[in-house]
Please model this.
Amino acid sequence: MRILNYIKISLRTLFLHRGFSLLTLLGLSVGIAMSIFVLEYVFFQFSFDKHFDRYQDMYRVVTSGNMENEQVNAALSPMVLASRLKQYPEVESATRIVDVGEVPVRSSYASSFESEILYADSSFFDVFATSFLLGGPRQTFSDSSGVIISRSAASRLFGDRNPLGQELRFNHDKIYTVKGVFEDVPQNSHLQYDFVLPFSVMEQQLKDYYGDSFSRMIESWFSLVCYVYVKMQPDADVHELENAFANEIKAEMEEEDMAIFSGERKTNLHFSFQPLHQIYLFSSQDFEIGKTTNKAYVFIFLGVAFFILLVTAFNFMNLTTARALDRAMEAGVRRLFGARRFHLAGQFVSEAVLFSLVALFFGLVLVELLLPVFNKLFLVEFFDRSYRQSLDFPLVLTVTLAVGLLSGIYPAFVFSRIKAFHLQSGYRRFSAYPGLWVRGLLVMVQIFVAVFVSTTAVGMYRQLSYVNEKDPGFDIEQVGLLERAGHLGTKTDSLYEEIGELDVVEDVSRMYFKPGEPVSIMSFSSSDDSSRLFLFEVYPVDSSFFRTIGVSAEQGADYMLGPGDIVINRQAAQMMGDEVIGKRIYTVAREAGDRMEFGICGIVPDMHFSGWKQSLRPAVFIPAGPDENLTSFLVRFKKGEWAQTRQLLRDIWMQSEVGIPFKAVSFQEKNKAFYSEDYRYMSLAWAFAVLVIIIATLGMTGLVSFLLATRQQELYLRKITGFPDFHNIRILFSGFFLFVLLGILMAFPVSRSMLSDWSQAFVVRYEVDYICFIIPALVMLIIAAVLVFFGARRLLEKISLHQF
Amino acid sequence: MIHTRNLQKLFRRGNNEKYVLRNINIDIEEGEYVVIAGPSGSGKTTLLGLLGLVDVPSSGEIWFREQEVTGISERKRNRIRRDHIAFLFEDIHLIDELTVYENIELPLLYMPDSRKARRQKVEELLERFRLTHLRKQYPGKFGDFVQQKVALARALSCSPDILFGDEPTGRLSSGEKEEFMELLRQLNEEGQTIALATHSREAARHGQRIIQLFDGHVVTTASDRG
Model:
């Protein structure tokens, strides 16, 4: 019965003190909504690849160790691995996968540019059990002309028609027949695929490329060219298998190593099993195939959710106890009539829980309203078919109850300490004295969190501005990319010519690599001293490449490439030592005996094509051969003319009727895209900063109201004694500002450390300076001053009225 | 009903000590209407707090219904207070968020009465003090007299053995004072034991016996009525 009374009082409090209730509910609703978003996001991150029935038996085999003094830590494996693993009874199935990349796909009804395409073994769907809507995997892999597609790919290319038996043309030439349609891969899957092609097609391509060397290549333990996923038997011991396998292949690997490097051991590789559900969050391998994320962000968000809950609860505590005088009387009366401490504690906790439940309603409205914004910010479709179609209500209720309980603890503690005699001897004194410090500390924590989050947001902004403005070593402002040029077929040359003739275009070049994507690394030896090996990134370029990107040679007569000439970057030159111009190097990467020799004709500056998050490696620029895969056209446009250039490129592209969607980006846009995840998190940091500032402002409002209510008499006495208003306000609020300042000061070192850790992901780092701290600190101080100003002014006016 | 022996109350603030009450020996019998009179600062409120088991003495004894209650725990004092004692204050102390009905019902919530019994009791009190038409109203709307009548009904809801009043008419006009004191007198005639602390001579004359306090001492005890 008492609980009903508590609820009744809580509801009455809510309605009778509307202003106070609005502030409290606003804080609670915003806090709950944000916590729900953040926790949903965090749980989503932890849910990756757990949708498979037996995800705990699924692994990816990764490679680690050394190869010619280079550290290897790759998600890739050799081709031979899967078939050898299948021989072990612990391995239920294993599949090789190769990512096809972006290609145009055309049906009789529609065309699209697709990027989620895999070559995979017939056992692919044994490992990745998927429900099929039409057909199935068995029919597909029987020959090399079948393809299995996803529901959404079928919808894109065939609309409502039955796709089974229909043809799909990949990259203009290869034709496949649709043999099955599978349910879309959930968004919380690190491996995304819309098309699965038979691996035999890939093997044929390699055979065509490598010729006689093909059989050696697919048997090699050191050619890391595919991804291998396995499904183990239930309860199989993976570590035991890892060791047994390593022992079995040890001799073979040694033999191959010695054969390649003329009797020397230069390679030591180890294959280990990485649990499937840990890939997205915890993998730090090079050459990843699917989605991964920086786990630091996820844990930061978990911390943010915790802090939001904390400041939300603190806010409630502050606002509730701001009405301490009224509530103390109520508590005193109840005590007088026999209520015990736990009765009062129960009342205040249940009141907080009730407030939280009411706030949950508004919080859910906020969630609904902000869903599109947060979907965009978090890059997650929060409630879609493939993940979860609605909120996780146990989570929502847990969050709400946690906020309610946490919020109610302090008021319960404070008010349950009130005794009946305080009604007689003055509860005013009681309620004012012990609360100030605790209340001040609560506000201090809120200020700390607000300044910490906003400083982090400012710091992230400064770091990202810094890397965007930093010179990448080439003329980034005047270069753009016309992507997908490699799929133009016979129209490539004519389009190239047309682009070169545009007035706004100063130069054009063919690109054979994609900025931001891994380029091949080959080992080179000096012709003078074959014992010295160098691992260089290899960039095939054409003769106008350096001119187009606006780079001149630092050394060398000319950087125009003749046959057999190569240009190296500064790092490669430093690695090779002094006087490298004219030196000759040869590659040993393909097969022993297949030697290709080059002469170094120039040294160019180090160029960061992939932004400042990837370390620069020693690189060589070699003349592109006729078989090299063209990726895009590099266009040098007149300064400030990118918009016009893009429009003209679009016109030419559309006129050529290639049937492939047009895509052109300036290198500056491309560069920015390398940090898209960081930009997203920075936007989130800003959003959270605003939110926490709002909550902290409410908290400060509570403390200011409390101070004004409890020290009204003192202020009155000071005023009639003749002290000036400013002096009175200074005396009254010096403690308040002390807490605000302490909160600000405590946030600085923590933000600095946080920003420092975060910026480790960048190769170059902006030195965190005072501006990062000053802006948030000023914002909080101004808000505090405004609250004090208006609060004090209202009270002083009241005192004046009272006097006259 | 209540007896005190050498009751003393000492207040300390820093190094300063002050006896608010000294050697108080009083007896309040069942059915009595006792007025504790004295000027401001004479210790009336403190004495009422001690007698009502709201506060604890520094020394001396308090006996309630033949049982010494001087050193009993907070919990036991709470229980005795809940079951046997009620209060009226000058500041009235009604809860603004509760209606008239709910304010009167409040003490019963901490007792084992059934809902039906509570309702019956509250209805009787509403009827008695002519508050039935105000039952769903919030007390903050009304004048002090109505509020004090609600407080009186609330105090009586748990059928206390003794009703303590600390200047309950302090905020009332002279007409209202008379009317309120008349209510108390009627209650006393029906057998309700009442102990009233006041500095008002008019209020004091309603009591059967006056205990005069001055500077923490009992100066005189005299029968003043009838």
